[in-house]
Amino acid sequence: MTTPNSAESVYDAIGGDATFDKLVAGFYAQVPDDDILAPMYPKDDMEGAHNRLKWFLAQYWGGPQEFSENRGRPALRMRHAHFHVDRAAALRWLELMNNSLAQIDEETIPPAYRHMLTDHFERVAGMLVNQPD
């Protein structure tokens, strides 16, 4: 079993593309029925949204540089500036990401890595808030 202290990237340690694809697919399976997040996502480009989030997360955790190759630098605050992201939206995004993470077994994503991911999700969600409560 790999640990967070090994030289292997988190991306590789938790199963690479297959795991990140499953994580993002689980998130987007919840979005269409969500009263807060669904209006923010283009119904005709859910596959594109899926790819962009997967590329971002995979790249952040040591995987392929697909996000940068396809979209340039992440610049998350700028990319989300035109969306109304208040605390409720950030918390809902976090809830759906954590729901998806919970669907992936601990053999694939052991607790130490799970904690790293949830900590990152919390920081990203908070950083993207651009509207007052």
UniProtKB/TrEMBL annotation:
Membrane-spanning segments: none
Keyword flag Oxidoreductase: no
Annotated source species: Corynebacterium phoceense
PANTHER family, A to Z: TWO-ON-TWO HEMOGLOBIN-3
Keywords of this entry: Heme, Iron, Metal-binding, Transport
Signal sequence region: none
Pfam family, one: Bac_globin
Domain of life: Bacteria
SUPFAM superfamilies documented for this protein: Globin-like
GO molecular function terms listed in the Swiss-Prot or TrEMBL record: heme binding; metal ion binding; oxygen binding; oxygen carrier activity
Biological classification of the source: Bacteria, Bacillati, Actinomycetota, Actinomycetes, Mycobacteriales
Family classification: Belongs to the truncated hemoglobin family. Group II subfamily.
Name this protein carries in UniProt: Globin
